[in-house]
Structures are given as structure tokens and as C-alpha cells.
Specification:
This protein is an alpha/beta fold. It has a domain of 124 residues: HUPs (Rossmann fold). The chain contains seven helices and five strands; from the N terminus they run ααβαβαβαβαβα. Strands 3-2-1-4-5 form a five-stranded parallel β-sheet, sandwiched between helices. The longest helix is centred in the N-terminal third of the chain and has 19 residues. The protein starts with 14 loop residues before the first helix and ends in a 5-residue tail after the last helix.
Length: 197
């Protein structure tokens, strides 16, 4: 007797199809329960040639960059991102960073463009070690983009931790940002060849 001819699972194996949605639910649950472990990258106390602060978190990211600058993590700050560029610069100056230490590019509208547009500037500055400052849940994708675009530069992650405790996820729509971040990680990997690890 010929096979089933349609490529469908044999009788008795239909339960395998039920595993797909069940697996998706389990993986999604794990991802949402453990975003601190899966999305956040922290390099610890490192010194670098430059800090780069990414747009998208108009208060916490430049404030974190200023904190690291004053702690001696790096002597210059590159601000990257369209839209909130000027706000970031003003926060840096407000928080004690001298204007002479602030550089920037204001064209990028995505994390991938942050990397593409900033790396030539970093190379002009002679930066070989660079600390990326972004939101904690965005740090894995940011690191992946910069390492993918410039494997010759050593990148570190020192993110901002506003809304890091789960009890604060209701602020600034953090739960939604976390869910979206997983989708973007997969999208960057599939569409742009940027692996998240």
C-alpha cells in the first residue's frame, strides 16, 4: 500500500502538531519571565576610549552616560539617533558633561543605523574600545548590531536600569518594550543576519 501521499503525519502522530503551539507558549512564557537574563548585557566596570549613547530613552540613557563619564569610564561621548538627539545632548550637559566631550550623529532611526552611522565616527576618533549605553532590555540587540558592523572594535555594555525591577514595568510601557524586543531580535537575525549572541 502506498504512503499517505500528502506528506501529513501518519495516523497516531497528529499529537506532534499540537506540540508546536504548546512549545511556542512555553518559550514565550520563559522569555517573559526571564528578560533580565535573556535581554540584558552588563560588562561591569570597564574603561574605554568612548561612550556611545543610543536614542530612544530620552532621559535615562544620557543620564547613565553622564554618570559613567564622570566615573572615568571614557573621556568622550558620542550621541547617536534622530529625534531625541538634542534632548540627549542637553541632558548630558545638564548632568555635568562638558560640551567639548560630546559628539554626535543625528541621522539614525534604528539600532542597525546607530551602528552603521556611528562606527565611521568612532574610527575617526581612534576609538578601539567603546561602551554602549542604552536601556537594559535593548542592550543585547545593540551589542549584536555594533559587533556585527565592526568586529575590529571591542564593545562593552553598561545599560541604564530604569524600570529594571519587575514592579516598575508598568512605567514607560516597559512590558510592551520587552515583548517587542524579542520580535526585533528575531527580525534582525532573519532579515539582517545579525545573530543575538
Amino acid at each position: 500500500m502506498a504512503g499517505n501521499g500528502g506528506g501529513l503525519p501518519r495516523r497516531g502522530n497528529w499529537w506532534l502538531l499540537g506540540l508546536l503551539p504548546a512549545s511556542a507558549v512555553v518559550v514565550g512564557g520563559i522569555a517573559f519571565i526571564f528578560p533580565h537574563q535573556l535581554l540584558n548585557l552588563e560588562s561591569g566596570d570597564v574603561k574605554a576610549d568612548a561612550l556611545i549613547v543610543l536614542g530612544g530613552g530620552p532621559e535615562e540613557r544620557p543620564a547613565r552616560a553622564a554618570e559613567l563619564f564622570k566615573a572615568g569610564a571614557a573621556p568622550i561621548i558620542l550621541v547617536s539617533g534622530f529625534g531625541d538627539y538634542q534632548i540627549s545632548v542637553e541632558i548630558l550637559k545638564r548632568d555635568g558633561v562638558p560640551e567639548t566631550a560630546i559628539f554626535g550623529e543625528s541621522r539614525s532611526i534604528s539600532t542597525l543605523e546607530n551602528a552603521r552611522f556611528s562606527i565611521p565616527l568612532l574610527r575617526q576618533m581612534g576609538a578601539r574600545r567603546v561602551i554602549i549605553v542604552t536601556s537594559w532590555y535593548h542592550s543585547r540587540r545593540a551589542m549584536a548590531c555594533f559587533r556585527h558592523a565592526a568586529p575590529d572594535i571591542e564593545f562593552y555594555s553598561r545599560p541604564a536600569y530604569l524600570t529594571y525591577p519587575r514592579s516598575q514595568w508598568g512605567r514607560l510601557n516597559t512590558s510592551s518594550h520587552i515583548r517587542t524586543e524579542y520580535i526585533k531580535l528575531l527580525g534582525y537575525w532573519v532579515c539582517h543576519g545579525v545573530p543575538p549572541f
